[in-house]
Amino acid sequence: SGILITRIEASSSQLTISWAGAAGPYILQKKSSLGDAAWTDVIPATSTNTVQIPMEGLTGFLRVQGVGTP
Q1: Cβ of 42: how many Cβ atoms within 10 Å?
Q2: By C-alpha distance, which of 8, 20, 14 is closest to 49?
Q3: Residues 6 or more apart whose Cβ sits within 8 Å of residue 63
Q4: Residue 49 near residue 39 (C-beta atoms within 8 A)
Q5: Higher pLDDT, 17 or 69
Q6: Alpha-carbon span 8 to 65, nearest angstrom
Q7: In the chain, how many H helices and how many E strands?
Q8: What's the rounded Cα separation, in Å, for the pair 24 and 1?
Q9: Contact assessment for residue 63 and residue 51, using Cβ atoms and an 8 Å cutoff
Q10: Which stretches does DSSP call E strand in the chain?
Q11: Measured in Å, how far apart are the chain's first and last C-alpha atoms?
């Protein structure tokens, strides 16, 4: 089964992202625009399913991948 982002919560300077699904480890990736050629890793591989990251910019796109998942 796939990975589903279950929560995105914003504070003044942080995003908290949680997900459920496939077994880890996971990587969180982002794009500023869907037209960007590649996804950028936001965090190193992690086994947890909730992370906090700094909020950057007004818009963006996030995805969670299982390590080794194409």
Answers
A1: 19
A2: 20
A3: 5, 28, 29, 30, 39
A4: no
A5: 17
A6: 16
A7: 0, 6
A8: 12
A9: no
A10: 4-10, 14-20, 26-31, 40-41, 50-54, 61-66
A11: 14
14: tokens are 């942080």
Residue with token string 């818009």 = 59
- In this prediction the pTM is 0.79
pLDDT band at 68 (very low <50, low <70, confident <90, very high): low
> What would the mean pLDDT of 33-46 be, rounded to a whole number?
91
> Is 1's pLDDT higher than 80?
no
What are the structure tokens assigned to 55, written together? 């909020």
Q: State yes or no: cis peptide before 44, omega within 30 of 0.
A: no
